[in-house]
Known about the structure:
Immunoglobulin-like, 5 helices
Amino acid sequence: MRMRTKFFALSCSLFYCILSLLACSFDVPDIKNDEPIKEYFEHWTSTCQVGKIEYASDHVSMNGMQNLSAANPIEINLYTINPKQLRLLCKEGQNGFYLQTEDGAVVSNDNYSECMVDPTHVKIQARLDDAHEGKTWTLSGCLWPENRTDFSLEDLRGQAPELFYSASFVQNTPPDNVKDLMVVREPLDGKNAYLYFKLPDTQNLNRNTGSTYEVNYYLREHDGQLYWKGRSELTLADNKNSGGGREFFYCFPGQESSLTAYEYTVQVNGPHGRKSEFLSTDPSLGVCVLVEPTITVLDAPNGKFDEDNAEYECYELASNDGTVSFTASPGQEGDSLTVMVDNIPVTATGGVYTVSGIGRHVITVTSSRVGARSVTVAKKITLVKTPDAALFEFEKEFNDCDEDANGYKFIEVESDDALVGYTITAPEAGTRLSVSIDGGSESGEMTVPATGSLPANQHTLVATVHKKNCNDVTSSKKVWILKSLEEPTFTSSNGNKTGTAAHEGQTYENYEYSYITYSNLKYTVSNPVSNADSTLTVTVDGSTVSSPTNATLSNGYHTIVMRVEKENLTPVEITKYVYVKIKRVCVTVGKISAFNSDGDKHVDLKGTFYAKTTRTPQLVLKGYHAANGTKVNNNHTITPDSHVLYMDSPSDTFYFYTSKIEDYDGGSDNDDLGTVSVGKSDSTRTLSALKSSKHFHSYSSNTSRGHYEFDVTLSEVALPSITFSPDLNGCSDGSSDFEYIEVENADDTVSYTITSQESGATLSGHVGGENFTGNTSGQLGVGNYVISVTVSKTGLVGTTVTRKIKVVQELKEPSIKFYFDGSQASSSGTPDDTRYLLYDAYDVALAADGSGSLAYIATPNSANSGASVVVVENYVASGASPVDLAASGELALGPHKLTFRVSKPGWREKEFTTQKFVFAQGILAPAKIQYSAKKTESNKVWTEMADTSSTQNLMFSYISYDKMPVKVAPGNTGNKIEVSLKKGDSVIASCGKTTDDFDNDDLIGHGTSVYTITVNQSREYCITSETVTRKFTAKIKPVTLSMQATNNGELSAWITGLGKNSGESMWIRGTIKINGINIFSWTENPFKDVVVGTWTPLRDTSYSFSRTFSSPSDTITLTIADKFRRDKDGDDLHIIDGSETISRSTTLEYVRTGKNNGSESDAGINWTFICNTISNRDGTIRPRVTFTPSD
């Protein structure tokens, strides 16, 4: 750099020397002709170069290099040598110079500018970033005069190096000073005064990072003078403010705790050697800067700075005469404030100042105090009026619907392809407009309105109004273009519109419908397809209809309001006035199922059946006027004559009624079967009721003698008349729709006639497959026929009547046969009972239980296959009614008078009255004569005596009985018996006629006597049986008695004496025998432990007893022998001594019952031998032996 400067100086000197020489009076070189001089002159007059550089912004020289402050933009001035005054920096689109740091960072074009002030002065300005604080910058580049613009940079560097220039400097900004320096005379860290200041807002900038704070402190002594006490260079780490932040507290350790009169000085030492201004808390120590006042703008800025001067912050006002409010407050108490706006003092109202007027304004607030440097702060603001929002206008008006949750308002069009034009205008002069439709790219800024057209859909129009220094005002309009609702339509699926009618000043449309098919007029209010998702509301006479599809209207006048609503669309409402009525209804009474009876199966019917309606006078359905009545079954069918009744309204009434109905019994004695009076509830019904219930069950005044069931048919055209001769029999088969007509013979025929009953109606149809049109007639033979007739009339619903007719041959008399035990029975002649000699007798053998009957089967005539036969029993008690029997069954014993009643579904029931006399007579089984020879447990086992005339020798168990039971039972349950019982020739028992058994247990004893039993039986409607006789004797079966001491019996004895007291025990020796057989024998050894004075068992396992006895009088003997004694050492005590024996005897009869044949007590146990006590010598003994008997 120094070499280039020297070269520049030398060149200049040479140049000016040459000019001086040329100006001298001595010979001067001819520039035009002296080529070397000419060339040198032209070069230096056609180029330029930098003569010197000056730094206009804050700078200092340190270490031989310029250090520039970057607190504000730097300014560098280049002064040039430019003899021809050429325009410099002429390379279009390119700067001549640039700034670059040592590590390659370059100042961007946004922060760099250069301009030629005049041909010799180039000014360069740049804003340096704090990030490069402490770095070296180099200014490099060239002047690039106007005569070199076609050169490239490299060509220029090669041909005119003098145009290029560079210079370097260091970016070194002084540190920001502290603010609000003061002494706080309050306790801190054990001291009563401390230094306070605020770190700058820019503390984090590189120019402040690492700064230190040189602090001195002074103490004001009693003489009022300040004396220096100490110095310290502090860092941020020395801050005693525990809360951190920008506030810095410090007190010197040497401060005395009790003193407060300290003052301080502070100077900031920057990280790169530059210092801040020296500040103090007292003017006598140096510069004392007051704490800055505060300007607080109460209104929020709009976030922009003035486009023409970025120092001004922008505030928006709603109107041109709006104001911005602010407050001003001193930094310390005692400071006085001066507040000015645009250098004009202003006063506050309630502590608040205002600024008004569109444009730029400067608010200044100055804090003053005697002896201190005043501090002024300024706030530069620009007041602007907020631009008005854009205006949106549409070709069609919005409807009255509220905007939806998404903010859309609604415009209705007539069709889906209609367009709606729009205009968007910025209403305020000086503004610009940009528009975006449905999120599309925004248009450029315009000064004219935006226009266009919108199709049916949702649209969002966004318009932004731009104004200098103002925030953009963006407004939007959400518009939803919808097709408008169409009117709903009213239609009826079952009604015809038949003109109009006036009612109460309003014109109504008439609608008629078929009441036969429908109960009401059906209508539908339809919402057009284009009204999708809409809500259709229909009210009829003020009431809302839940579903207007196939809804119904009753008869009468109606006001129908049809309203279509859809969210966001204008509702459509239509009112319709409708009068509803039914088409005329024809009523026909069908077959009447009648019951008429005075208690008999048939009646001779007399009387008339009627019907009428509100619109039709009385007409005769059927009349029975024969002189002697018309014979019918009590259950019969009445087929009404051809007729038609009319009803015009659901409230019209149908009536069924009769005259007095009678069963003809000769005139004055006719039986009253009751009357159905006019208006009777079960015979009267409105048309609306007939709709739901066409079936009637009408009772006459005598309910037990007359009631009628029938159905009515409803049609719009009167049904045709169909008549037959002979007429219908009034019967039905119950399983088909056939109506029956009876003829006597198989080749007989029935005549029919079919005619119309309504003027203008036409008939067509077929009879048995043969088609016809119009009125017709013909003949029907035996067989089945379907008659179908369709009656039609213009404007009315036609009706088809189908009749199924069956022509049949009338019923014939059946036959009957009788059976017994599955075989056909023949008459046995006249009954045994002479009272019934006119009857045919049939024998019936009775069962053991006394039952017995004669089976029969009644069979229909072969011409009446499938008919049912009822056999009628006419043999009944006086005054009783005959009894119906089944076609097959059983006749009880006795007389019967039988007739027949034949029926078949569809045929008139027929009764054949010729009686058949039948007598069923019973045959009795022989009586049963029985005896019982034994019992099983407690039940007697009965055995029937053999059927023989000889005397029978019968035997019975003496174990079961002591006498043989006998019994006589009837041969059949319920028979009456007579019994006589003889022993020899003497009657010992008898009974008269009884149905009970003859039963006796104690008459037949054992022995050789002969007994005779004679039995007679009888029963009503039975042949009397022969006498039965039986002869017999009764003996016992042999009985075997057994006894073993350990098994089948027991020997025990009651012994006293023998030198022992009662209860003491002893040993005994001796023998006891039954009929000579030992049952106890202890002679060699004693029998031990016999207890005196009690029954003691005497057991001897070596002996047993068994003997058979044939008669109750057989003898049983007990013997005591072999010196029966007490066994005692040296001296025996005896009951029997030596060869002495003692015996006692009884009979089998006494042993059977356990009785003693002496004077002492019985044993109390059957099959036990006991006798009186045997007393002898030294003691007594009473033996007792219990046997086990067997047959």
